Amino acid sequence: MSVTVCLAPAHTLGYPNGGGHLWEYLNWALALRAVGCRVIWLEGIDPESDTSTARRRRWRGGDVRSCLATLQARLAAYGLTNALALYSMDGAPLPADVTDGCLDLEAAAEADLLLTLWHSLPAQVVGRFRRTALVDTDPGLLQVWMTTGDIRPARYDTYFTVGETVGTPHARFPDCGLRWHYTPTAVFLPAWPMTAADAAAPSTTVTHWWGGTFEFEGATFSNDKGAAFLEYAQLPARTTANLELAVCLGDRQQELRARLEPLGWAVREAWDVSATPEMYQGYIRRSKGEFSCVKPYCPQFVNSWISNRTVSYLASGKPAVIQHTGPSRFLPDAEGLFRFRSIDDATRAFTAVEGDYDRHCRAARALAAEYFDGCRVVSRVLETALA
Fold first, then answer.
1. Cα(62)–Cα(307) distance, rounded to whole angstroms?
2. Inter-residue contact 134 to 160 (CB < 8 Å)
3. Which of 184, 183, 185, 129 is nearest to 156 (CA)?
4. Residues in the chain with pLDDT < 50?
5. Do 19 and 126 belong together in one domain?
6. What is the pTM of this model?
7. What pLDDT, in 10s, does the model give residues 316-340?
């Protein structure tokens, strides 16, 4: 008997330029469909609760309809035609011309499982489903927010996390009294074939940099990925590898370029290279590999996390040089994937990659296939969540 899964992502409807953001959830959706599930893609609309005047005006002015059309077209391109379901986050009725062509919450709630990848799905929505599971994609941060009361997630039947240490003695953050089941992040391998890159291609990443700080147990922690990257600003001078950052630059574009380009970095506006799912895929495929830092709280909390973006690089046969976030039961530190703790580590990693590039490309793909294969990942998640 087939299983229907209602997948609840985080804000893909209101982020039409986020090709990489969309892929975080497309990987799960396509893997679920490949193992025989019917997939419903659940999105919320609540313009009244947004504190941004500009954003309220955009939704009320009708751009929500444009965003809906864009999302429907992008889902249809991957075989998810008529999969979009909408709900009202504040409970008010949605206009008929907005919901036209979409499922409603009542239809979505007939699913066998609600699989949520967004920690703030309203409790009144979660409560409509017969079986529910949450996948924590912000390990450490979510548990801190839950402890401080900044976030009060709905209750779920099963809790998953992509952080290997969550709920273990290695983690430097609480488990909130919940049983967390570790799951690797999912990558749908057929969408990310191993592809060759030009010899002069740069190692790249696609990222948001800007973030603030937060307090926990008397200490201050940083959620600012830019601060982490700037600690490695001198890296281009220490390696023959070409390095490029695709960053959502905003109004700090001139500042960032003036600081990094003289040091040897190429700097791109992320939306110029990854505004659609196809652009994001193409950018990764043309890259020689990935170089990326993480938000500073990740190694501080020892959350043993790896991003869906990095796994997409690995699946494409692109060696990744990424910042170490904690112990792993299976992630290597120097074979297709290099996890660095210092600029010296990162320098040595690029020397190793450049010295035997083809081998590390094969190792990257093999790592993705063995541990992050979306079909295996979702099959294990379904087995646990529906037990």
1. 34
2. yes
3. 129
4. 47, 49-62
5. yes
6. 0.95
7. 999 999 999 999 999 999 999 999 9
CA 330 vs CA 109, 162, 184, 296, 370: distances in Å: 37, 13, 11, 23, 10
Tokens coding 189: 């391998």
98, 233: one domain: no
Q: What CATH code is carried by the domain that includes residue 110?
A: 3.40.50
Residue 319 shares a structural domain with residue 173: no
Q: Are 288 and 201 in contact (CB under 8 A)?
A: yes
Count Cβ atoms below 10 Å from residue 17 Cβ, excluding itself. Answer: 16
- What are the angstrom distances between the C-alpha of 374 and each of 61, 168, 247, 380? 38, 25, 27, 10
Same domain, 324 and 378: no
The sign one gets for the Cα dihedral 376, 379, 384, 387 is: negative
At 198, list the tokens.
């030009």
- The CA–CA distances, whole Å, from 197 to 50, 264, 284, 316 equal 42, 20, 10, 10
Residue 180 and residue 225: Cα distance in Å, rounded? Answer: 26
Range of the domain at 258: 190-371
Evaluate whether 225 touches 293 at the Cβ level (below 8 Å): yes
CB-based contact 360:335 (threshold 8 Å): yes
CA dihedral 2, 120, 49, 277 (to 10 degrees): -60
